Every structure is written in C-alpha cells, then in structure tokens.
Amino acid sequence: MMTGKNHFATPVFQDDIPGFAAQNEKLYALVKRLQEEDPEGARRSNQGGWHSSEKIDVRELPEVADVKKVILEAGKVVAAGLGFEGIGMFLASAWFVVSPAGAANARHLHPQSFLSGAYYVRAPAGSSPICFHDPRGAKIYATPTSPSWRGTPYTADVVKYSVEEGRLVIFPGWLEHSVPPHQADGERVVLSFNFVAF
C-alpha cells in the first residue's frame, strides 16, 4: 500500500493576546506621535503608507514595554516548538507600519532573521490579510494546477492569515510574505519584529 508523509515543514504560529485594548490605544498614540516627528518614515516593502525609520529604536520605547514582554515570551515558545528550546536569540529589530486605504506590502522576506513576526495594533473589519508564499520554488516547474476547488497544503501557492487587533503572528524570517492593498475603513497598524539566533 502506498503511504505518504509530509516533510520540510513551514510553520506559522498565531495567538490572540487578551486584554490588550488599553495597550493598543497606547501604541496607537505612540505611532501617531512618531508619524508627526518623522512624516517621511522609511521605504522598505511598504507600498504607500508609513514605515517607521531607524531614527528611533522602537524596542526601547516605554510604550512598547508590555507588548515587548509578550513578544519575547512568545518567541521562546515558538523556538521550543520548532525544536530549538534553549537557543540563544534576541529581539534584533522592531518597527511600525501604518497602512491607510490602498497601501500594501510587496512580497519579501527578512534576511538573517531566525524568526519574524507581527503584532496588530489596529485592524479594522475587512483589513488585508498577511499572505505567506510557498517557499518551494522548484515546485512551479512541473506541478500542474489542481482541478480541486478545495486545494490541499501541497497545491496551495499562498496561505492567507486574517488579522485582528491583538493578534500576534510569528513565522520563519526566510518565509516570503506580502500584504495586498488595504481596503478597509481606517488604518491597519502593525508592530513588526525580527529575532536573531546566536
């Protein structure tokens, strides 16, 4: 009898952080202040919208302290879940991205990052999902289009994760991801971050 196994796992971890509404208000006020102080921000994968620059180390801002603790603890849990329990790692960078209507993030990855992630400060109903792209590049050369409307983990080229305020998503830094143009009323605001292992 023919049997099959899945190999080369590509994990994405997600958790909804309870009781962080007040924290999100504090973070949103911080983002608005940072935008006023540095209206141009930075250009990275963002297409439109605003991306905080390296002029300020977001990790060290007091308003970020509570969510930083949650991110650090989640990073340890994810590392252990991947089989790297006890590995040395640190929060190497963090930044905010604000997406008004029409803003998007081009497909990209985070080089030299062990884990990357996003914490959603604002996510109005209908906010664009974060999309993860199949990392198996060679697959495109010989795999036919699936006739099944349901698809399977093997046939999917993109996996979409819906976003909500207070949601934390962590994934391998090498996993390509993107965000389609934001269509909801109100801004989509995310605190993104990278972990580096040592």
Short description:
This protein is of the alpha+beta class. It has helices at 21-37, 65-81, and strands at 13-16, 46-47, 50-51, 89-99, 104-108, 115-122, 130-133, 158-161, 167-172, 177-179, 188-197.
Give a structural overview:
With 198 residues, the protein is an alpha+beta fold. The protein has one domain: q2cbj1_9rhob like domain (Jelly Rolls, Sandwich). 17% of the residues lie in helices and 30% in strands. It contains two helices and eleven strands. The strands form two sheets. The protein has a six-stranded antiparallel sheet with strand order 1-9-6-11-4-3. The longest helix has 17 residues. The protein is globular. The mean pLDDT is 95.
Reading the helices and strands in chain order gives EHEEHEEEEEEEE
**Could you give a short account of the major beta sheet?**
6 strands, antiparallel
Distance between the termini: 44 Å
* Low-pLDDT stretches: none
Q: How many DSSP-defined strands?
A: 11
CATH superfamily: q2cbj1_9rhob like domain
Say what the CATH topology is. Answer: Jelly Rolls
